[in-house]
Amino acid sequence: MKRKVVWVLGILTAGAVSGFSQAPRVPREIGRNVDVEHYKIQVELLPENHEIIAQATLRFKLLEDTNQVVFGLHGNLTVSDVTDEKNESLRFLQDDIEAYTVEISFSSKIPAGTVKTLAISYQGIFGRQGGVASLPADPYAYVGEEGIYLLNTARWFPTGKFLFDAATTEIEATVPLGMSVVAPGRAFPVRTEGLREVFTWVSEQEIPLVSLVASQYFPFNHPLGSGVPAAIYTTEKHRDLSPTLATEVDKVFLFYEKRFGAYHFPQLSVVQVPGLSQIHPGSGGLMFLPERAVAERDLIQIARSLAYQWWLNSVGMKGSSDSWISDGFAYYAAALYLEESAGTERFQEAMDDLAVLALKHEKKAPVVSGLELGYESPEYVSIVAGKGAWVLHMLRSLLEEEKFFELIREFAEKNAGQRASISDFEAVAKEKAGKDISWFFAQWLRATGVPEFSVEYMVYRTKSGFRVGGSIKQDLELFRVPLEIRIETKGKPVEKLQWLEGKSTNFTVPLETTPVKIVLDPRGKVLRNSDEIQLKVRIARGRELYEQGDFVEAVKELTEAARTHPRSSMAFFRLGETYYEQFNNASAANAFREALNGDLKPKWVEVWCYVYMGKIYDILGQRQRALAEYQKAINTKDDSFGAQVEAQKYSKIPFIRERQAS
After folding, report:
1. Which of 123, 289, 372, 544 gets the highest tally of CB atoms within 10 A of its CB?
2. Three-class SS string for 192-222?
3. Burial class of residue 442, CB neighbours in 10 A (0-12, 13-18, 19+)
4. Please, which residues bridge with residue 7 across strands?
């Protein structure tokens, strides 16, 4: 692909650009030779035009002798000028197609240790693709009348080393009257300038992420139980939910203070972000929630979002391989909160979901691949967050409860406001364990693969009762795993902890009463493969492909899931959904019928199969058959995901579906 570049020197005009060489070149690493100390960002936001006009002033220290520095900047944004402390324009090269960089050249080499200040002026558009309101051009940046979000991930301002270069910040954002801006730090009085208002937020603490959001917010002040000032920002639609949301955030906050130590920031802003579709780490003292998480009071998303205030925003990462310390810890923290607030069963459900997430892409890379997987890509979330959370869960079993939670709290408190590595954590874990557990981190963080277990055994009568003897087999030769075994008997169950090393480990257990069956890992403490979980993984991968719009590959994945598990209603239901999106009504109807003939797990599959079947018959012009299906849906009385509203609606008026222009 041809790279688009822009050169500027002093008052160089656009017409002179062609005089410079544009030969292919490898971009220098962003922020490699600088330590950014402070960002001052003055930004005017024009939601009616989806436009951003800004100047970012960066103060940074040079880490080596150099005549050039490189910053990251989104490809939608175009730099117009770069000036230094003397207000003299500098030459720069912008790549807004491949590397998303701005390379700035000095007239001579500047020695390491020098503190420089540069002002970078730029502007651009963050809108939607193809005019389709539900499809953001960038999931991390949008400027529009319904709301604005400019997240650090989008590089909406010239950035240093991504996720590592923590700095103090000053943000001055101008928006139309009626909009409110929320950013990291402390808010200053708002200035009104005609039909626009200027919001200023200052963070005197160094933070690794700098984001900004704006909308027509209604703030609700609610000091947290530990005395930390907090404000909940929701739009008018969800204004009434603010007290409930504040109460839930307060509960999670207190739990995290107990588990991870004191909160590191002077206040907390909890912000509903219109248009945001997924959890984002926010910024120091700034917590983001998608609209759906607010509307549905989604505890796992609320807890996960708040966890990032301790993991990443407080305890940062030293290198790209250390991102487990943020995402793995945040995902497990949310599961721990569910264990505290909703009980063991809900916690186990959360860990089962994380196991499916982990195994979707586990074979592709080890956890320590970190940011090399692509930050927040499906592979990254699966391996670093999903499998990473399970690594902590297994470490909890290895160390036992008290030592594990002592380890997590001490590590968080020791590294608050600093950056830490996996090796740092491993050293503290080894100290807590009182023995060498490097093998644990080697097999779970630095290697791929999860074990699959099977058991073969015989039952023998003895003078005192019975004895069970046999062997547990695993498919990974070098894995070392402590595995619980439960032997169900006609009396009380008997449990044993068995260490597995190699592909086969023998065991023997004396019993007083007749054994009935053997259950491996009865409490789900080991991340492992099984026939049941592989079905869930296939369905999850199919759903992921479906959401990415790759319906052909989704059909392949889901067809295989349905073939190997012909009683799985969920496999056939997801297959039916995918065919439906392809406008393949006949295949969709067949899949939904197979789903209805299956195990009907989960229960809501039944009502939605009837709703989809009704829609398909309406599309085919068979109104009476459609009405019969809607009535079946109504008769279930199952209102999962609004099924009853949907069925009632189309029992009154026929469903009409039109193809959208691509």
Report:
1. 289
2. EECCEEEEEEEEEEEECCCCEEEECEEEEEC
3. middle
4. 93
- Is there a contact between 268 and 224 (Cβ–Cβ < 8 Å)? yes
Say what the pLDDT of residue 661 is.
41
The CATH number assigned to the domain holding 570 equals 1.25.40.10
Longest dimension (CA), the chain: 99
pTM tops 0.85: yes
Domain that holds residue 401: 320-444
Strand positions, DSSP E, 502-585: 504-511, 515-520
Asked whether the beta carbons of 480 and 452 are under 8 A apart, the reply is no
Assign 20 a pLDDT band (cuts: 50, 70, 90): very low
> Which has the closest alpha carbon to 28: 79, 66, 74, 76?
66
* Alpha-carbon span 495 to 522, nearest angstrom: 9
- Look at the block and give the residue holding tokens 């027509």: 216
Quote the CA–CA distance of 582 and 590 in Å, as a whole number. 14
| 138: its two tokens | 């960038």
Give me the CATH number covering residue 403: 1.10.390.10
pLDDT in tens, 507-539: 999 999 999 999 999 999 999 998 889 999 999
Query: Is residue 335 included in any domain, yes or no?
Result: yes
Q: Which residue has the tokens 């809900």?
A: 346
What integer is the mean pLDDT of 368-386? 95
**What's phi and psi for 511, nearest 5 deg?**
-135, 150
**Residue 120: φ, ψ to 5°:** -115, 120
d(CA 154, CA 138): 8
338 and 436 together in one domain = yes
Would you say residue 497 lies in a domain? yes
**Does residue 236 fall inside a structural domain?**
no
Question: Domain tally for the chain?
Answer: 3
3-state secondary structure of 341: helix
> What CA–CA distance (Å, rounded) separates 122 from 41?
11
